[in-house]
């Protein structure tokens, strides 16, 4: 049985992103009002209480992300003001800017910390078509970050995602583009880190994804020998990547679904990578699960805004309750 709670985030403008911490007990929100807010869940009542609110940038804040708690209470933010920032909570309730990353000449559209097995790495992507990867050489000194790699994508970048493979596997980065100028060009690219050359190499691009991409998410890899990538675009696409040699992948479109009947904006996996959540302009969140035939089906529909009348698309053959 599912339940929901309405949280009045008190932002004065459009909310662009929300992010749970590792344990799901803290929630960060960011907005065009240039503020980030932190919400803590009361373990006794289950209510979300505002613990911090501060101005982070001089432009709209597009994304907010948490680092693994092994490194402390650390946030990353990116903004229309062409910068990304790293924040640390010290003492509790007070967030301090540890560094400002100013290498981009255009809006920084996404920011993600790498899985902890790769160390304290941070990836950003920008409208200038460049993915930048930074490293904190000393995790006890978050004011020092070095730019390790710049990956040119030759198109506007809108979102990115790290894979969650084991430390024995080479890191992968998926990068999405929202460039609408050329609908014939691929909008999703896969880059793999080559240890021998110490650089990132493009190993795949998805020709079947030709519409602007708004979000990407790799499924957590729990005992799986391949990767699953969810793509939020004009519709929802689920893609599998199976290694077929040292530097190549067999790419298969596992499913393409237009159940939202509108643009899909966000995709997110559960901790085991077995259930996918997608949200769209129809005002609904849909939950997806794979059956024994390796087919993905919508198993639940959640109304996103209780004050807004939204009409779900129940005509899809993918709906199974």
UniProtKB/TrEMBL annotation:
The record's subcellular location field reads: Lysosome; Nucleus envelope
Q: Does the keyword Flavoprotein apply?
A: no
Q: Which UniProt keywords apply?
A: Cell cycle, Cell division, Lysosome, Mitosis, Nucleus, Protein transport, Repeat, Transport, WD repeat
One GO MF term, please?
Answer: structural molecule activity
Q: What is its main location?
A: other
- GO (cellular component) term, any one: lysosome
Q: Where are the WD repeats?
A: 8-42, 257-289
- GO terms classed as biological process: cell division; cellular response to amino acid starvation; positive regulation of TORC1 signaling; protein transport
The record's annotation in SMART domains points to: WD40
Q: Which family does it belong to?
A: Belongs to the WD repeat SEC13 family.
> What protein does this entry describe?
Nucleoporin SEH1
Question: From which source organism is this entry?
Answer: Lepeophtheirus salmonis
């Amino acid at each position: 049985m599912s339940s929901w709670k309405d949280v009045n985030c008190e932002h004065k403008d459009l909310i662009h992103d929300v992010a749970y911490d590792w344990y799901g007990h803290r929630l960060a929100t960011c907005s065009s009002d240039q503020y980030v807010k932190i919400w803590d869940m009361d373990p006794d009542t289950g209510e979300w209480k505002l613990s911090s609110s501060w101005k982070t940038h001089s432009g709209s804040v597009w994304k907010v992300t948490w680092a693994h708690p092994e490194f402390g209470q650390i946030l990353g933010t990116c903004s229309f003001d062409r910068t990304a920032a790293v924040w640390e909570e010290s003492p509790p309730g007070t967030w301090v800017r540890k560094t400002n990353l100013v290498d981009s000449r255009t809006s920084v559209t996404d920011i993600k910390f790498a899985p902890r097995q790769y160390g304290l790495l941070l990836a950003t992507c920008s409208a200038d078509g460049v993915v930048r990867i930074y490293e904190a050489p000393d995790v006890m000194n978050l004011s020092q970050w070095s730019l390790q790699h710049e990956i040119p994508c030759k198109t506007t970048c809108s979102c990115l995602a790290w894979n969650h493979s084991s430390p024995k596997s080479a890191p992968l980065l998926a990068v999405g583009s929202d460039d609408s100028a050329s609908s014939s060009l691929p909008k999703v690219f896969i880059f793999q880190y080559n240890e021998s050359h110490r650089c990132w190499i493009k190993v795949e691009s998805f020709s079947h994804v030709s519409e602007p991409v708004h979000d990407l998410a790799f499924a957590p890899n729990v005992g799986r020998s391949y990767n699953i990538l969810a793509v939020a675009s004009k519709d929802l696409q689920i893609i599998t990547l199976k290694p077929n040699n040292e530097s190549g992948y067999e790419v298969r479109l596992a499913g393409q679904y237009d159940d939202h009947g509108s643009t899909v904006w966000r995709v997110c996996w559960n901790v085991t990578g077995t259930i996918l959540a997608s949200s769209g302009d129809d005002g609904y969140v849909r939950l997806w699960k794979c059956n024994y035939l390796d087919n993905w089906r919508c198993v639940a529909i959640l109304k996103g805004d209780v004050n807004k009348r939204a009409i779900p698309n129940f005509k899809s053959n993918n709906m199974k309750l």
